[in-house]
Amino acid sequence: MANVLSIQSHVAYGHVGNASAVFPLQRLGHEVWPVHTVQFSNHTGYGSWTGRVFDGQAVDEVVEGIAARGVLGSCDAVLSGYLGSADIGHAVVGTVARVRAANPAAVYCCDPVIGDVGRGVFVRPGIAEFMRDVAVPVADVVTPNHFELDLLTGRTTTTLPQVLDAVAALQATGPRVVLVTSLDVEDTPDDAVDLLAAEGGRAWRVRTPSWGCRSTVPATLSPRCSWRTGCPPARPPARWVPRRPRCSACCG
To answer: pTM of this prediction?
Structure first.
């Protein structure tokens, strides 16, 4: 069992950010310490929402309270996602430094939430640059989607070799492991979605069948149902039979 400090967004309706991460981690047997960067009624992809974005001080205050319990040394991992502002980002990086000082073996996993295909950049000004220049270089693991991989590396990737080159370029900035989600390259079938994991000069691609979305989120925002949309999946067709993900080594 690991202790995970999860600094992410939270929504009351739907499942995204901490509302998506906490329960699965708990079901895997991990202890999760959630710190919210925003408190929204629902995912912003719906077009309207209520709630507020917290500032970096609010995050620092919660972390300080956790530190006062004397437990930072037992924190095994820090997980960060949607930030809301660059100010929160600096609080996250500061928290990572505090955790690593207390436990040098702690791992930082950064989901560099910036945007997505069809929607473009949807975070506030300055966050994309913060992710590229500050957060990603200090992370052990990063989990960009295909759009974010291109944005972070300044490239346009449409083939698997191009993606592998971009992943290597991202790793050269600091992260040891890169996990690319919602990967869509030339040989990705229309009814599937790929995921690529890379570490130590080796990479693996996992392909799974894609489902459509049935929600009020416009289809242009999520051509394939993304876990970030917080939308409920459509009911599978009557003859739909689950398939195991297909995994193949891409290199090395």
So the answer is: 0.84
